[in-house]
Amino acid sequence: MNIKSVFVLVACMQSVGVFFSGTSEALTFRKAKKEAVKIYKGHEVAFYSGCSYSYKEKKLVPNAASCGYTPRNPITKKGKINPRTVRIEWEHVMPAWVFGHQRKCWQQDLNGDGTKDGRKGCKNDPVFAQMEGDLNNLVPAIGELNGDRSNYSFSMLPGEPRVYGKPDFEVDFKHRKVEPRKEVRGDIARIYFYMADRYKLRLSKQDKQLFTAWAKQDPVSDWEREKNSAVMKVQGNGNPFIE
């Protein structure tokens, strides 16, 4: 799908009111993670690093040698192996903070202590629950990279050092920015477009420009189509920016 088609699709979907509506069939985040494991069977590739991973003792374990990954923080302060460097986690490409803080439940202060309730405040919000469990927004990632990505926004970071070995994943902790490898930039763009459209979420002008460029530079892959088809079978809808 070319960029012009993307914006035509958005306009058409808005004109006919194709947006999220509550449903009792929405997946919880916990259930979505279990379904994601099944969907990625046969395509065990960590999203940000490109490492392969496998199942060991009912856990998803990255093969660091397959992509040259070396942990940024291999050892914890207690002198033990950092558990997030040796496990695969399910990452929200659009972070829960991004889609959550646009919900009233995230902004409320039920305790009256002057702080926002955040994710805890949204635990009973059906819209947040569906966004949190939306398989279109979930990808496997090495735990350390998932943690370092945090809720940072995506960007281009010229000159940033690679601190995870060979994987082209760069983080600017000071400015809270992340540059992903080029092979998944289009995937990220299409996921953000999907989330913004389906749940009426706001994207900044800068993000729209960046993701438009990324979607053009990194076209839809065969794997995206395969995953999209599998997601549609599980949760009833896929990502129209991939179809």
Describe the fold and architecture.
This protein is an alpha+beta fold and 243 residues long. It has one domain. The protein is built from 10 helices and 7 strands. The chain has a 3-stranded mixed sheet, with no helix packed on it. Strands 1-2 form a two-stranded antiparallel sheet. Strands 3-4 form a two-stranded antiparallel sheet. Helix 8 packs across helix 9. The termini are close together. The N terminus is likely disordered.
Keywords:
243 residues, alpha+beta, two-stranded antiparallel ribbon, 10 helices, globular
What is the element layout, followed by pairings?
Blueprint: H1 3-15, H2 29-39, E1 52-56, E2 59-63, E3 88-92, H3 96-100, H4 104-107, H5 118-121, H6 126-132, E4 138-142, H7 143-149, E5 153-154, E6 170-172, E7 177-179, H8 185-198, H9 205-217, H10 222-235
Parallel strand pairs: 5-7
Antiparallel strand pairs: 1-2, 3-4, 6-7
Q: How many helices in DSSP terms?
A: 10
pLDDT < 50 stretches: 3-24
User: How much of the polypeptide forms β-strand, as a percent range?
Assistant: 5-15%
Main beta sheet strand tally, sense and closure: 3 strands, mixed
